[in-house]
Design goal:
Layout lengths: L1 H13 L6 H11 L4 H24 L1 H4 L9 H14 L13 H10 L4 H24 L3
Helix pairs in contact: 1-2, 1-3, 2-3, 2-7, 3-6, 3-7, 5-6
Length: 141
């Protein structure tokens, strides 16, 4: 059940919902009854899959951007688009960051980024973030 909770929070946090998967991860790490590696893998997979939803929405954004429920502000979209235009697919390395990270993954879809490259870079970025959180939690950093 704990792994499912972590997966859902990581997935939701990456899909532009105001969730904090980091807090769930640290809470589970504190309990010290779960495999660290499995926690990191589950969090990464959930977060990457959530970003894949954003990429897909980006592909179809023209259909959705005027909907009431669309969770990205015009300001954040423009900010992410400028970053993406300036740095190209390398901007996906910032997909882990708060505020602009999720819009960047959406913009990648809008800009028709190749899915395989998107998946590779976002997995590195998101997995790296969870590893750094673990290293901070364990006192290595």
């Amino acid at each position: 059940m704990a792994y499912l909770l972590l997966f859902l929070s990581a997935f939701g946090a990456a899909t532009l919902l105001p969730l904090q998967s980091e807090a769930v991860l640290v809470g589970l790490l504190v309990q010290a009854q779960y495999s660290v590696y499995l926690l990191l893998i589950v969090a990464t997979i959930g977060n990457v899959l959530g970003s894949c939803v954003n990429w897909y929405l980006g592909l179809k954004i023209e259909q959705f951007k005027d909907k009431k429920w669309f969770p990205v502000s015009e300001k954040n979209m423009l900010k992410a688009e400028k970053i993406y235009q300036k740095y190209g697919f390398w901007s996906l390395l910032f997909s882990w960051t708060p505020v602009i990270g999720d819009p960047i993954t959406l913009i990648a879809g809008l800009m028709k980024e190749k899915f395989w490259r998107f998946l590779l870079i976002v997995t590195i970025a998101k997995g790296g973030r969870y590893c750094v959180i673990y290293l901070i939690f364990s006192g290595w950093i």
